[in-house]
What does this fold into?
Amino acid sequence: AQSVTQLGSHVSVSEGALVLLRCNYSSSVPPYLFWYVQYPNQGLQLLLKYTSAATLVKGINGFEAEFKKSETSFHLTKPSAHMSDAAEYFCAVRSLSTGANSKLTFGKGITLSVRP
Amino acid sequence: NAGVMQNPRHLVRRRGQEARLRCSPMKGHSHVYWYRQLPEEGLKFMVYLQKENIIDESGMPKERFSAEFPKEGPSILRIQQVVRGDSAAYFCASSPPTEEQFFGPGTRLTVL
It folds into this structure.
């Protein structure tokens, strides 16, 4: 069984400040890991993904995440927040062992607010 | 290449009515997934389909919910005799084999 924990439901940062959104996963087999962003009343857009290659993954809009197996973590970071980053962010895990097209298991999501 | 299409975007039903949600996958994608997002919660997997086959329906409620992905046409998520607890955003995702899932804009169902 797989699970994702995103601690806290809301993070607020100032424009230009570091963004850190935490994600811990549980998986009995090597995972694929994903970060998605959801803007109000829209669908999910993929920010980045970890697929067992490089542990530091760079995504769109200046975001990156580092896979740390020892900590079972896949935290999302961005050096400098923009107002346009305000959205909801979801971490998700997918197992490799059940086939390349197995379901995604999502965390509850974190709402990011950016203060001027 | 158009993205994943879902319609309607908003659907209002009264208790006891039927809701039909449609999903047209991206061109070339043969795998479709349905997820439900309840207020203040993340997305929960419902069902995974390939053309004419249900691969994994472990997230589907046992009653009133059904899904299909026919050889021709969109995938349909059908909810019979809707109740207020069915109010949610329903997202469809599609993928080709071995690749990531691309999400549609969702259908927001409101049950009065």
Summary: The longest strand of chain B covers residues 43-50. Chain B touches chain A at residues 4, 6, 31, 33, 35, 40-45, 48, 55-56, 58-59, 91, 93, 95, 97-106, 108 (CB under 8 Å).
